[in-house]
Amino acid sequence: MVGTVGPDTLELREAHRFPNRPVRAAGTLYWDVLDLYRGVLDGLRAAGRAAPDGRLASVGIDSWAVDHGLLDASGTLLGNPVHYRDGRTDGAAERAAAVMSPKELYAATGLQYQPFNTLHQLVAARGSSALTAARRLLLIPDLVTYWLTGRMGTELTNASTTQLLDPRTGDWARPVADAFGIDLSLFPPLRRPGDGAGELLPEVLEECGLAGPVPVTAVGSHDTASAVAGVPAEGGRAFAYVATGTWSLAGVELEAPVLTEESRAANFTNELGVDGTVRYLRNIMGLWLLQECLRDWEADGLRPELETLLREAAKAPGLRSVVDASDPVFLPPGRMPERIAEECRRTGQPVPRDMAETVRCVLDSLALAHRRAVADAQRLSGHEVEVVHIVGGGARNELLCRLTADACGLPVVAGPAEAAAFGNVLVQARAAGAVRGDLTALRSLLRATRPLRHHEPVGDRGAWDRAEAAICG
């Protein structure tokens, strides 16, 4: 994505798009990180051609969280990073609990339980040849940045997803690392959004046809941190956000973490954001449910057209059946329509009769999960909100946005769909001096330049209460 930013200007253009195709080999699911890096280089080449004067003022990298590459003493990658959906972490959380109780771990790191947190990945990898040989651990965006610049660092917002960082201090939780025998020297020094991360190497400039120097700037390298920075919230108006994509990340922005036992029991996480903020949120399975349904139907030769399915789903009976979109049963790939049907049977609800009813079940269930997360975030943090912002790919899904407004009983502002990219380029632009101000000022520029859709809540709130009772009691 190429951003053009000035005091009254904010434009974003897609320069290059490439697939992300995980590979299963010898029973392990890997990211094809070299293919992804090739896509980044192709994207930089295209970005240079798309830039107004053929020059790039800065580059910033964000990606998903928790996964990482291990490097040896010479800086060579020791193998493809393992995908967080791989089964190698099965049982790791239970082994971790034998070292430090979930209550102690949450009080130290504020991170919600996820079976694939970096800490659990390291517990699962203990004694492996790769971890034994490793001298550096680089989270995915830090790995790409290292290959581009030759310089290593650990960006803070992504580091806060490892379950090895103290969200109160913004530094490593050394008692946690010590308890698990994790050598924190594996991690390069911490960087914060806006810090310099080096310059594109001469060989990268040559390969991509770029004129140097091109600085690389640390951004909110966890894509959700960039997406929340890209929420077009109005200054002085308390808001909740739902960053939608494969996952839905729903919560509020705070100045300090919430580390109570009640917060842990509700499975809320405290991840760090841009400008010292805390992203207090819950992970929800998100549009992964719909993506997997589409993939399974296509594999069966049905080849449904998404827009047609969404129109038919809008006409299907609402709240006929719902599932718990946070249930780990939906985490692995495969057989998603069948698993949704099985959950409906298990909870005594009607089974979807066709693809449209399955899609409506998915979207009703996501809206219900958004409702629970927004309500719980307010209750646990004491931070009341007036509006819900939906950003990311789900902002394009008008039915999902409308259902979320109805479920939450709050106005929903939808957009931008590319919030992570906007948050990324705004942090870069501020570091380069193209814009000034705090997050409120950056968001004001977003609000002034982006088309947004507004949805007011309608319908019977009691129907949502009854649907929630069907799965939560």
Describe this structure in words.
This is Rhamnulokinase. Belongs to the FGGY kinase family. This protein has 2 domains: 220 residues, ATPase, nucleotide binding domain (Nucleotidyltransferase, domain 5, 2-Layer Sandwich); 242 residues, ATPase, nucleotide binding domain (Nucleotidyltransferase, domain 5), CATH 3.30.420.40. The longest helix is centred in the last third of the chain and has 27 residues. The protein contains 19 helices and 19 strands. The chain has a 7-stranded mixed β-sheet, with helices on both faces. The mean pLDDT is 96. Helix 2 packs across helix 4. It is globular, with a radius of gyration of 22 Å.
Describe the structure in brief.
This protein is of the alpha+beta class.
Features:
473 residues; Nucleotidyltransferase, domain 5; 2 domains; 7-stranded mixed β-sheet; two-stranded antiparallel sheet; 19 strands
The best one-word shape is: globular
| Rg over C-alpha atoms, rounded to the nearest angstrom | 22 Å
> Mean of residue pLDDT?
96
| Fraction of residues in H or I helices | 40-55%
* Terminal Cα span: 45 Å
User: CATH topology of the largest domain, anyone?
Assistant: Nucleotidyltransferase, domain 5
Strand content: 15-25%
Q: For the record, what is the CATH homologous superfamily label of the largest domain?
A: ATPase, nucleotide binding domain
| Low-pLDDT residue intervals, each spanning 5 or more residues | none
Decide which structural class fits the backbone: alpha+beta
What is the number of domains? 2
CATH class of the largest domain, named Alpha Beta
Q: Counting H and I runs of at least 4 residues, what is the number of helices?
A: 19
CATH architecture of the largest domain: 2-Layer Sandwich
Main beta-sheet strand count, sense and barrel state: 7 strands, mixed
**Overall number of strands:** 19
Instruction: List the strand order in the largest sheet.
Output: 15-16-14-13-17-18-19
Keywords: ATP-binding, Carbohydrate metabolism, Kinase, Nucleotide-binding, Rhamnose metabolism, Transferase, Xylose metabolism
GO molecular function, one term: ATP binding
Organism: Streptomyces taklimakanensis
Pfam family, one: FGGY_N
